[in-house]
Write the C-alpha cells for this entry.
Amino acid sequence: MTSTSEKAKKYFERLSQSEALEDIFDDVLPKTPPFVKDSLNSIPGPLSWSKGSQEKRISFLKELIGSDLDYITSQKIFNEPSSLQGHIENYIGMTQVPTGIIGPLLINGTEAKGEFYVPLATTEGALVASYNRGAEASRMCGGITSVCTVEGVQRTPVFKFKNITEVGYFVNWVLSHYNDYQTIISEHSRHAQLIDIKINAEANQTMLIFEYHTGDAAGQNMVTICTDAVCKYIVANAPVKPRHWFIESNYSGDKKATLVSFASVRGKKVIAEVALSEKVVKEVLSTTPYMMAQYWQTSCIASMQSGAIGIQGHFANGLTALFMATGQDVACVSEAAVGITRMEVNDNGDLYTSVTLPNMIIGTIGGGTSLPTQSECLKLMGCFGEGKARKFAEICAATVLCGEISIAAALSSGQFAKAHKLFGRNRQL
C-alpha cells in the first residue's frame, strides 16, 4: 500500500493547515485510560429488547446530540417520493432494517476526536453486541488512534488503436495537454480535483488512469462525469483517433476487490490502532493477548491459503451495517472491506492491534446521505455535510477495529458459537 512522495507531501501540508504537526501527533496518542468498566455515557439497557429500554436509549441520544431522531424512531413517516429522484427508480416504498448503536467509542483522530455513538443497521444478531464490546475494551485503554492518510478516486477509460505506434502518438499528445483537463473538470464539478493521470499501455490499446480528489463526496458519479467530458475533448482534438473507446476499462476497482486498489488507494486510506492492556483483555474480552495474537497468526496462514486479498476477519460486517445506516453506496463494501488486521503482543505483554483500510469509498454529502434516516445517523456522529468525510472515515476505521478485536477474542477463547447462540437466534422460531 504505497504512496508517491508528492501525495505524502500534500497530506502533511493539508494536516498542518489548521494545527501544528506536533500538536496533531500528540492529539492522536491514546488518552489516559480510565480503567473502569462502566461509563457515565454508557448506552442504557444494552442487552434488553424491551420497549422501555428502547425509549431510554432514544431519550439518551436525543439529550446527547440536542436534536430529534424522528425518522429513525418512526415518529415521522417519510412521504416525499419526489425527493427520491436521483436515488431510485420505480419507487414503491421503504425496506426497514433494524438499527442499533455502539458506544461510547473513544477515538483519537486527526478529525474524529472524542466519544462517538455509531449507528449500525443489520439483521444479524450478535453483531452490535460484538462491536460494542470492542468499543468498550478500546475505550478502557485510552481510545483508538484513527488517521485518514491518502485520498484518491479513479476512473480508467480505455482507447483502442490500429497499432502500438498510434498508441505512442496518442499518449504523447494526451500528456502534453494535462493543464487543459482541470479547466474542463471545473465546468462539471465544484469538488473534483485531478490529482494525476497514469498510463497503462497493452498492445494496441491504452488505459488512462484518472485519479481525483472528490472532497466530501464518495465521488463515483463525479469522476465518471468529469472523465467523460475530458475524454470527449481528447478524442475530438488528438491527432490520432482511437478506433473505439470506453469510459471504464474495468481497471479502476469500482465495486470489486482488486490488488491494484489494495496496493495503493481508492477513496480514502485509513489506519486505526490501539494497545489493549492484558487486564482489559482478560476482564472484558475473556481471553489473553497471547491467545488473540496466536489466533491472528493462525488465521493469516489460512487466509493466504484461501487466496484472499488482504488479511482480516470480517471488515464487511461493520462496514455494511454502517453504510446502510448512513446512506453510503452499499455495493462499495466489496472494495472497502479489503484490508489488513494486525495483532501482536508488545514488550509490556499488552496486545497491539490495528486495521488498515486502503479503499474507503465514503461520503458525507451526495448519494443517499441526505435521506431522512441516513442524515439523522450521520448527524448522530457529527458527520453530516461538507468538511466531514475525513472524520467519518476515521470513525469507520475505528468501528472496524472494534469488530476485529471482538471476533478475535471470541474465536481465541472458544466463545464464538456461544455468542451466536445467545444473540443470533430468534427463540420464537
User: Anything to note?
Assistant: The chain has two domains: 5-79+89-150+263-423, 157-246.
